[in-house]
Design a protein that fits this description.
Blueprint: H1 12-15, H2 21-24, H3 29-33, E1 36-40, E2 44-45, H4 47-52, E3 58-62, H5 68-75, E4 82-89, H6 92-95, E5 125-133, E6 145-152, H7 155-164, E7 172-176, H8 195-201, E8 210-214, E9 232-236, E10 241-245, E11 275-276
Helix pairs in contact: 7-8
């Protein structure tokens, strides 16, 4: 959890889920979308959960490069200190009950079909899981529960289907090494003029409050946000990652991006197992 951001209390919808109810009760789409983190081109990267669980309790990961079996193998490795309480597949109708239309492309966006022939784009699926903190781990380790929704889908199209079509907006978006150079992403998610950013910016309901931005390589590459609308630095969490806000009242003065002390989930004993990257 990041001390510079507010802590969320476990909402009733999350606290009341059980292995039985998750299969028998309606999918709580709006609850999952509210105050969520949206992470396109995510892979199986646990760092946003590591840093932001407690500030956020609903994490939505999107990546078209993994099969259902690959995802389940990674999911079963879990997060240190947490157990998988419940999970199930989610249908397209549950995700977009009112239907949706794909975002409009321009020539500069790229060709979304360019990697289909190479077999990189996998069969779509969606899986929803609830993790619960294990006995023996205190509240200082992280929240008692969090939700993880994983979609095998395109990151820009999924944002349109989930948020725009459902009149919702996430609390934060994570843009971390999104793969437009060597990772088989057909477009550049870091470019504020291309399809993902335009879809986020043009949502009639509004825009996310925070951007979680970073990646591997030279730290100076990530010293400024990729989307300039998020100009106010909140904090630097180390390892080349920073959090930026659209609102000045959420920012703290950072003359240079120096590491700050994160009281939860930062030492090696607390790293999640779900840390694979392509």
């Amino acid at each position: 959890m990041i001390s510079q951001l507010p802590e969320l209390e476990n909402p009733a919808w999350l606290q009341n889920i059980s292995g039985t109810s998750i299969n028998n009760e309606p999918f709580p789409l709006q609850d999952i979308l509210k105050d969520s983190l949206y992470y396109p081109s995510s892979g199986f990267d646990g760092r946003p959960v590591m840093h932001l669980s407690g500030n956020l309790l609903s994490f939505i990961y999107v990546d078209y490069g993994y099969t259902y079996n690959e995802f389940m193998d990674s999911l079963n490795k879990g997060f240190l200190g947490y157990e998988l309480l419940a999970g199930r597949k989610v249908s397209k109708q549950e995700l977009a009950p009112c239907g949706c239309r794909p975002p409009s492309l321009t020539f500069q966006d790229g060709d979304p079909s360019q990697y289909i022939k190479f077999g990189w784009i996998k069969e779509p699926f969606c899986y929803w899981s609830i993790f619960q903190r294990q006995d023996g781990y205190s509240a200082s380790h992280g929240p008692s529960r969090f939700s993880l929704l994983f979609l095998c889908a395109d990151g820009a199209a999924a944002y349109q289907a989930l948020y725009v079509a459902n009149a919702a907006v996430p609390k934060a978006v994570a843009i971390i090494q999104p793969g437009h150079a060597f990772g088989f992403n057909w477009t550049d998610f870091t470019d504020p003029n291309k399809i993902l950013a335009r879809t986020v910016f043009n949502n009639p309901i509004g825009m996310p409050e925070f951007l979680f931005y970073g990646g591997i390589g030279k730290q100076k590459w990530y010293s400024e946000p990729c989307w300039p609308v998020f100009q106010n630095p909140v904090c630097y969490v180390g390892g080349g990652f920073g959090i930026w806000s659209r609102n000045a009242h959420n920012s703290i003065l950072l003359l240079s991006l120096q590491p700050i002390t994160i009281p939860v989930l930062t030492n090696g004993n607390h790293l999640p197992r779900w840390m694979e990257r392509t």
